[in-house]
Peptidyl-tRNA hydrolase
Amino acid sequence: MKARSLLFQRLGLSRFEERSVSEDLWLVVGLGNPGPNYAGNRHNAGFMVLDLLAERVRGSFRSHKSRCDVVEGRLGAVRVVLAKPRSYMNESGGPVKAVRDFYKVPTERLVVVHDELDIEFGAIRLKKGGGDNGHNGLRSITRSIGDKEYSRLRFGVGRPPGRMDAAAFVLKDFSTAERKELPLFVDRAADAVESLAEKGLEATQNVFHAL
Protein backbone atom coordinates (compact mmCIF):
# COMPACT_ATOMS: atom_id res chain seq x y z
CA MET A 1 0.00 0.00 0.00
CA LYS A 2 2.89 2.36 0.84
CA ALA A 3 4.53 1.70 -2.52
CA ARG A 4 1.20 2.33 -4.25
CA SER A 5 0.80 5.65 -2.45
CA LEU A 6 4.30 6.69 -3.47
CA LEU A 7 3.46 5.85 -7.08
CA PHE A 8 0.38 8.07 -7.01
CA GLN A 9 2.39 10.87 -5.42
CA ARG A 10 4.91 10.67 -8.26
CA LEU A 11 2.08 10.84 -10.76
CA GLY A 12 0.80 13.98 -9.04
CA LEU A 13 -2.49 12.42 -7.92
CA SER A 14 -4.20 13.36 -4.68
CA ARG A 15 -5.14 10.82 -2.02
CA PHE A 16 -8.75 11.27 -3.10
CA GLU A 17 -7.89 10.48 -6.71
CA GLU A 18 -5.99 7.37 -5.64
CA ARG A 19 -9.05 6.03 -3.85
CA SER A 20 -11.39 7.04 -6.63
CA VAL A 21 -9.98 4.39 -8.94
CA SER A 22 -11.61 1.64 -6.87
CA GLU A 23 -14.45 3.31 -4.94
CA ASP A 24 -18.00 3.86 -6.17
CA LEU A 25 -17.35 7.44 -7.24
CA TRP A 26 -20.01 9.55 -8.97
CA LEU A 27 -19.28 12.27 -11.51
CA VAL A 28 -21.80 15.12 -11.63
CA VAL A 29 -21.41 17.51 -14.55
CA GLY A 30 -23.20 20.83 -14.81
CA LEU A 31 -23.58 22.41 -18.25
CA GLY A 32 -23.29 26.09 -19.07
CA ASN A 33 -21.13 28.67 -20.79
CA PRO A 34 -18.05 30.05 -19.03
CA GLY A 35 -17.59 33.68 -18.05
CA PRO A 36 -19.57 36.37 -16.23
CA ASN A 37 -21.55 37.42 -19.31
CA TYR A 38 -23.37 34.07 -19.27
CA ALA A 39 -23.64 33.50 -15.53
CA GLY A 40 -27.33 34.38 -15.17
CA ASN A 41 -28.49 32.79 -18.43
CA ARG A 42 -31.12 30.06 -18.52
CA HIS A 43 -28.55 27.95 -20.37
CA ASN A 44 -26.38 28.07 -17.23
CA ALA A 45 -28.86 26.35 -14.94
CA GLY A 46 -26.49 23.38 -14.73
CA PHE A 47 -23.67 25.60 -13.46
CA MET A 48 -26.01 27.10 -10.86
CA VAL A 49 -26.88 23.69 -9.45
CA LEU A 50 -23.20 22.65 -9.38
CA ASP A 51 -22.25 25.83 -7.52
CA LEU A 52 -24.76 24.98 -4.80
CA LEU A 53 -23.53 21.38 -4.62
CA ALA A 54 -19.98 22.68 -4.20
CA GLU A 55 -21.17 24.71 -1.21
CA ARG A 56 -22.73 21.58 0.25
CA VAL A 57 -19.48 19.63 0.02
CA ARG A 58 -17.65 22.70 1.37
CA GLY A 59 -15.32 22.80 -1.59
CA SER A 60 -14.08 25.31 -4.12
CA PHE A 61 -13.76 24.67 -7.82
CA ARG A 62 -10.20 24.33 -9.07
CA SER A 63 -8.80 24.12 -12.55
CA HIS A 64 -8.19 20.57 -13.77
CA LYS A 65 -6.20 19.30 -16.75
CA SER A 66 -9.42 17.85 -18.23
CA ARG A 67 -10.49 21.43 -19.11
CA CYS A 68 -13.08 21.29 -16.36
CA ASP A 69 -13.23 23.06 -13.03
CA VAL A 70 -13.69 20.39 -10.38
CA VAL A 71 -14.58 19.90 -6.73
CA GLU A 72 -14.03 16.62 -4.91
CA GLY A 73 -16.06 15.74 -1.86
CA ARG A 74 -18.93 13.80 -0.37
CA LEU A 75 -22.68 14.23 -0.67
CA GLY A 76 -24.09 12.31 2.25
CA ALA A 77 -22.56 8.85 2.04
CA VAL A 78 -21.52 9.19 -1.60
CA ARG A 79 -18.16 10.29 -2.94
CA VAL A 80 -18.51 12.72 -5.84
CA VAL A 81 -16.55 14.78 -8.31
CA LEU A 82 -18.40 17.91 -9.41
CA ALA A 83 -17.31 19.23 -12.79
CA LYS A 84 -18.04 22.32 -14.89
CA PRO A 85 -16.53 22.26 -18.40
CA ARG A 86 -14.54 25.38 -19.25
CA SER A 87 -15.52 25.03 -22.91
CA TYR A 88 -18.61 26.58 -24.47
CA MET A 89 -21.79 24.53 -24.29
CA ASN A 90 -21.59 22.97 -27.75
CA GLU A 91 -18.06 21.69 -27.05
CA SER A 92 -18.77 20.16 -23.62
CA GLY A 93 -18.07 16.62 -24.76
CA GLY A 94 -14.28 16.76 -24.84
CA PRO A 95 -13.84 18.03 -21.28
CA VAL A 96 -16.52 15.66 -19.95
CA LYS A 97 -14.84 12.65 -21.56
CA ALA A 98 -11.46 13.76 -20.22
CA VAL A 99 -12.66 14.19 -16.63
CA ARG A 100 -14.65 10.94 -16.77
CA ASP A 101 -11.62 9.02 -18.06
CA PHE A 102 -9.30 10.63 -15.50
CA TYR A 103 -11.46 9.56 -12.56
CA LYS A 104 -12.43 6.25 -14.21
CA VAL A 105 -16.14 6.78 -13.63
CA PRO A 106 -18.43 4.39 -15.52
CA THR A 107 -21.37 5.73 -17.50
CA GLU A 108 -23.89 4.47 -14.95
CA ARG A 109 -22.43 6.88 -12.37
CA LEU A 110 -22.30 9.92 -14.66
CA VAL A 111 -24.99 12.57 -14.11
CA VAL A 112 -25.39 15.61 -16.37
CA VAL A 113 -27.39 18.60 -15.09
CA HIS A 114 -28.75 20.82 -17.85
CA ASP A 115 -31.48 23.27 -18.81
CA GLU A 116 -34.55 21.90 -20.60
CA LEU A 117 -36.87 23.95 -22.82
CA ASP A 118 -39.67 21.37 -22.95
CA ILE A 119 -40.25 21.42 -19.20
CA GLU A 120 -41.98 24.28 -17.39
CA PHE A 121 -39.83 26.63 -15.37
CA GLY A 122 -38.75 25.16 -12.05
CA ALA A 123 -39.89 21.60 -12.72
CA ILE A 124 -37.26 18.87 -12.46
CA ARG A 125 -37.23 15.64 -14.42
CA LEU A 126 -34.70 12.84 -14.30
CA LYS A 127 -34.02 10.13 -16.81
CA LYS A 128 -31.34 7.76 -18.00
CA GLY A 129 -30.33 7.66 -21.63
CA GLY A 130 -32.36 8.88 -24.58
CA GLY A 131 -31.73 11.50 -27.21
CA ASP A 132 -30.43 15.03 -26.84
CA ASN A 133 -33.73 16.76 -27.78
CA GLY A 134 -31.77 19.43 -29.63
CA HIS A 135 -29.54 20.28 -26.66
CA ASN A 136 -26.06 20.99 -28.03
CA GLY A 137 -24.30 20.16 -24.77
CA LEU A 138 -25.86 16.72 -24.55
CA ARG A 139 -25.19 16.07 -28.22
CA SER A 140 -21.52 16.88 -27.74
CA ILE A 141 -21.22 14.65 -24.65
CA THR A 142 -22.92 11.67 -26.28
CA ARG A 143 -20.73 11.98 -29.35
CA SER A 144 -17.53 12.27 -27.32
CA ILE A 145 -18.08 9.46 -24.84
CA GLY A 146 -19.78 7.19 -27.39
CA ASP A 147 -22.57 6.33 -24.98
CA LYS A 148 -25.96 7.91 -24.26
CA GLU A 149 -26.86 5.82 -21.21
CA TYR A 150 -25.84 8.41 -18.64
CA SER A 151 -28.30 10.04 -16.23
CA ARG A 152 -29.69 13.50 -16.88
CA LEU A 153 -31.22 15.96 -14.46
CA ARG A 154 -33.35 18.23 -16.62
CA PHE A 155 -33.95 21.67 -15.12
CA GLY A 156 -37.05 23.19 -16.66
CA VAL A 157 -36.73 26.69 -18.13
CA GLY A 158 -39.91 26.63 -20.23
CA ARG A 159 -40.50 27.62 -23.84
CA PRO A 160 -39.76 31.11 -25.21
CA PRO A 161 -42.66 33.53 -25.48
CA GLY A 162 -44.24 34.26 -28.82
CA ARG A 163 -41.92 33.72 -31.75
CA MET A 164 -38.65 34.23 -29.88
CA ASP A 165 -35.91 31.93 -31.11
CA ALA A 166 -35.15 29.16 -28.62
CA ALA A 167 -31.38 29.72 -28.88
CA ALA A 168 -31.83 33.41 -28.04
CA PHE A 169 -34.17 32.56 -25.17
CA VAL A 170 -31.73 30.27 -23.34
CA LEU A 171 -28.96 32.85 -23.71
CA LYS A 172 -31.03 35.42 -21.82
CA ASP A 173 -31.09 35.77 -18.04
CA PHE A 174 -34.01 34.43 -16.05
CA SER A 175 -36.74 37.03 -15.74
CA THR A 176 -37.20 39.18 -12.64
CA ALA A 177 -40.17 37.07 -11.55
CA GLU A 178 -38.27 33.83 -12.17
CA ARG A 179 -35.26 34.99 -10.19
CA LYS A 180 -37.44 35.29 -7.07
CA GLU A 181 -38.15 31.55 -7.20
CA LEU A 182 -34.86 30.41 -8.77
CA PRO A 183 -32.98 29.72 -5.49
CA LEU A 184 -35.76 27.34 -4.38
CA PHE A 185 -35.65 25.41 -7.64
CA VAL A 186 -31.85 25.25 -7.72
CA ASP A 187 -31.92 23.92 -4.15
CA ARG A 188 -34.48 21.30 -5.17
CA ALA A 189 -32.35 20.23 -8.12
CA ALA A 190 -29.33 19.84 -5.84
CA ASP A 191 -31.46 17.68 -3.52
CA ALA A 192 -32.41 15.54 -6.51
CA VAL A 193 -28.75 14.97 -7.42
CA GLU A 194 -28.03 13.80 -3.88
CA SER A 195 -31.05 11.52 -3.93
CA LEU A 196 -30.09 10.04 -7.30
CA ALA A 197 -26.63 9.09 -6.08
CA GLU A 198 -27.85 7.71 -2.75
CA LYS A 199 -31.24 6.16 -3.55
CA GLY A 200 -31.24 5.53 -7.30
CA LEU A 201 -33.21 6.79 -10.27
CA GLU A 202 -36.67 5.33 -9.67
CA ALA A 203 -36.92 6.40 -6.03
CA THR A 204 -35.75 9.90 -6.95
CA GLN A 205 -38.22 10.18 -9.82
CA ASN A 206 -41.05 9.14 -7.51
CA VAL A 207 -40.31 12.06 -5.19
CA PHE A 208 -39.20 14.87 -7.48
CA HIS A 209 -41.51 14.27 -10.43
CA ALA A 210 -44.44 14.74 -8.07
CA LEU A 211 -43.35 18.25 -7.01
